[in-house]
Amino acid sequence: MADNKKELIKNLKNAISENRPDEIVEVTEEYIENGYDSKDAISKGITPGMREIGEKFDKGDIFLPQVMTLGDAVSESSEKLLSTLSEDSEETKEDKIVIGTIEGDIHDIGKGIVQMMLKVEGFDLVDLGRDVPLDDFIEAAKEHEPDIMGSSALMTTTRSGMEELEDMLEEEGLRSEIKTMIGGAPITEHYAEQIGADAYGEDAMDAVEKAKNLVNKNEG
Amino acid sequence: MGMNIAHYAASGLGGIRTAGDLVARCQMRENMKIDEAKNYVAKKLDVDTQDLSNVNVMRDLREELDIGVITSLPGAAKGVEAKSKIADVLDIEIPSVNRLKNKIE
Amino acid sequence: MTEKYTTRKGDGRKIELTKSEIREDIEEGSADAANKGGINELKEDEKDKIVSLITDPSKVVSVEKGNEVPFTHDIGTLRLMGDQGNSGVGIPMSREQGVKTHERAFAVDTMELGHIDYSFKPAKPIIAQEQQTLEDILLSTIVPIWYGAMPNLGLYYAPDGQFKNPNELMPEGKIKEAKEAQEKAIEQAKEDMSYIAENLRKVGLDGLNIDTTAAAGDPDFKAVLEVTEELKSNPETEDLAIEIGMAAEHVLGMHGDLEYNGKQLAGIFPHEQVEIVEEAGGDLFGPVCNTKTGKSLPWNLARAVTFVKETSKVSDIPIHVNMGMGVCGVPMFETPPVDAVTRASSAMVEVGNVDGI
Q1: Most exposed among A73, B72, C83, C151, judged by the fewest C-beta atoms under 10 Å?
Q2: Is the dihedral of CA A211, C246, C22, C17 positive or negative?
Q3: Could you give the CA distance from residue C330 to residue C342 in angstroms, rounded to a whole number?
Q4: In this entry, which stretches build a coiled coil (chain A) (predicted)?
């Protein structure tokens, strides 16, 4: 029995890392039918499988449409596994991110990629779009109560909005409840430190890792 | 701004101060890699390739060939006039020169 | 006590490293490029050369006399006139004055005319103005003149453009629709680039600089390759020089299935990109390698030189490496430090074997 469980977890991981979306749900269903522990399938199958996919995306060996198709299958698989856990289990909670491009900036290709990769990783995404007034970020923070607020800027002229956003979250008394993460071409780790943001994502995969760290998703 | 000056100081040929525009034209027109382009221009100008970035040599040579100099010099070829001479000296086509010739023919 | 050398981080800040730390960063940077691109690492003497450039106490370093290369300049005259708080310094002047200033005062080998938005799409409705400004410039200047712009496929997607936005469609699972939108954008971008090239060639343009190619991924790259092929097979434009400059080190797979001459475009690196650019008829190629702001100058430079050296090796057309802010070793800082720029510039020429910058 133990061998079968191990085998199924391995198959799940390989189906993900080798980009075979149809097999992912199939293997998940077989795993659940056997009554094995869902948490093991997530931590030993889905998580390492997605890590490999992230590395492949970073290296240019797999592309966005494939990642998105794979992401849908992984989401379905995760939902099935999570539904077997008790409702009050911590794992049933999806971490929420509000994301948008700062006011005055219409560049959204990079943000779009980050957003898709976060979604694939199981985050609950609220996309505010591009050229987003800072007040709308605040409104969204109140309405959605996210774990993380992510903002992007491609221009040095618009990145100053990120600092203003930090101040506005503070003034509204929301900052202590929300982690902030920033990214975009003119953004650096140093800039993030300067304005007091909690994290800086250098590229899509880095953003995913940092987001996971912020919500302790990388633990265990 | 300013970065192009740093690049010039580090590794630039020097534009019309020297023979930078001539080497660039050969790369653009004939897909010449750097050594081939420099050799081609040096041969046409009858100088050593080392002199292509030597202001001291190129300033006088450009004046002598009347292919445009960087400082104000009354009577020296300017603009498309200088380019028409460059086309002759390098034996290459320059679209704006051809256009002018077609207009006045 | 071990001697420390002042160098830079990828974000431009000063840091101090020992010679062995510098060597280590160079080893790691080169290995990273080799691993990512499936290419060879730099040789020991090449790494030594970068170590000597980084540890040189001079503020400005340079190539050996006789090793100089010509430059093409992108972003047109915007670095002088641009006043958006970016890299421009906001000097009020005409574009003709800007080109002449570059030719006469900044020792440029070639210069470029570009529209304030620097994209092809918005230049189309004002083509008569671009033609007349170009005519004036061609009459009064000597250096070769490029017209530079970005294919910028992002401008063809909603809300700016007429096609649905793939970034919105994909998260909704509408993959097929997203790909169709990209394919339509390719055709429209080709039409616009071709229109601009033909009309500017009519008034004597020397070359077309297609800058930040593939910023919107493989569809962007495919549009550029196909329009290059079209222009090169059109008798009216076949002698127009075409430079294809990239936006990033690898082509993002926003579509994933696009090919050129049977070769997949997504995920390819500079040494693979240049071969396809040559097939399409490109005359010059501008590779890019992104600077990692969290890594040191030696790491970034060794990594970039490793990619670019391989690109120069396999290329039969001249390589003019992109060396602006945040690429190919140059720190991501609006006014990149002169010490870092001159080191990056010298390494690219003497180790990366580029034909120009």
Answers
A1: B72
A2: negative
A3: 9
A4: none
DSSP designation for B12: B
Which chains share 3+ C-beta pairs under 8 angstroms with B?
C
- ipTM over 0.90 threshold: yes
Say whether A155 and C86 touch across the interface (CB within 8 A).
Answer: yes
**Do residues A14 and A100 share a domain?**
no
Final residue before a domain boundary, out of A30, A54, A86: A86
In a domain, A91, yes or no: no
Single out the residue of C154, C120, C328 nearest to residue C254, CA to CA: C154
Please, are residues C54 and C25 in contact by the beta-carbon 8 Å criterion?
no
Q: Is C2 exposed, middle or buried (0-12, 13-18, 19+ CB in 10 A)?
A: exposed
Please give the single-letter amino acid code of residue C136: D
Residue of B nearest to C281 (CA): B31
- A66/A105 same-domain check: no
What is the CATH number for A40? 1.10.1240.10
Helix, coil or strand: residue A148: strand
Decide: helix, strand or coil at residue A125.
strand
Mutate to test the interface with C, among A53, A64, A203 (most CBs of C within 10 A): A64
In this complex, the residue of C11, C175, C292 whose CB is nearest that of residue A69 is C175
Q: The domain that contains C132 carries what CATH number? A: 3.20.20
Taking the Cβ of residue C122 and every Cβ of chain B, the question of whether any pair is shorter than 8 Å is answered with: no
Q: Name the residue type at position C239.
A: D
The enclosing domain of A191 has a CATH number of 3.40.50.280
Q: Which helix (H) or strand (E) holds C57?
A: none
Q: Are residues A120 and A63 in the same domain?
A: no
The residue range of the domain holding C95 is: 65-293+314-342
What are residue C6's phi and psi, to 5 degrees? -80, 125
pLDDT per residue, tens digit, chain C (357 aa), is 789 999 999 999 999 999 999 999 999 999 999 999 999 999 999 999 999 999 999 999 999 999 999 999 888 788 888 877 666 888 999 999 999 999 999 999 999 999 988 999 999 999 999 999 999 999 999 999 999 999 999 999 998 899 999 988 887 778 899 999 999 999 999 999 999 999 999 999 999 999 999 999 999 999 999 999 999 999 999 999 999 999 999 999 999 999 999 999 999 999 999 999 999 999 999 999 999 999 999 999 999 999 999 999 999 999 999 998 899 999 988 889 999 999 999 999 999 999 999
Counting CB pairs under 8 A, whether chains C and B reach 3 or more, is yes
- Last residue within a domain, chosen from A53, A86, A119: A86
Look up the domain containing A49 and give its range. 2-86
Q: pTM of whole model > 0.80?
A: yes
